[in-house]
Design goal:
The chain is an alpha+beta fold and about 140 residues long. Helices cover about 20% and strands about 30% of the residues.
């Protein structure tokens, strides 16, 4: 099976008019100029590993017969959208970089947040800088 996920990813952006999550002290509050993608507790590290390897946010490899083959799901942020502790990792990208039905995987450099819940701080923290440094190290070592 040919891996065409970078070129043929279809981004799906869900715009919500109902509340998602609860606005409590340690929830991740979202903004309307960003879109968010939850990469859950079970699959989060696999997707992060894939991003570090290929440099893109892309869907997992699925058979062509899968009804969501090459689709990547995002949620538009706003005053009614919150992510609670336990959602796993959450990717954030500017809304103007990810449009509904837009084709093509999202480049890693377009992300502005990789949010992880810190049990120690009891809140979500943005660890994008850690992953940018890691990405540079991985790709610098491969180019030597």
């Amino acid at each position: 099976m040919e891996d065409d996920r970078i070129e043929n990813t279809r981004n799906r952006v869900f715009e919500n008019s109902l509340a998602i999550g609860k606005n409590i002290d340690n929830s991740l509050k979202t903004i309307s100029t960003s879109v968010y993608r939850v990469i859950g507790r079970k699959t989060g590290t696999g997707q992060i590993d894939d991003i570090m390897k290929c440099g893109y946010v892309r869907p997992k490899l699925t058979p062509v017969t899968d009804k969501h083959h090459n689709e990547l799901f995002w949620t538009k942020g706003g005053e009614k959208t919150f992510y609670m502790n336990g959602n796993g990792m959450i990717l954030e990208a500017p809304e103007y970089k990810v449009k509904n039905n837009q084709m093509g995987a999202i480049p890693f450099e377009d992300l502005i947040g990789i949010w992880v819940f810190s049990d120690k701080e009891c809140k979500y923290i943005n660890v994008i800088d850690y992953y940018r440094d890691l990405y540079e190290q991985v790709h610098m070592n491969h180019s030597l």
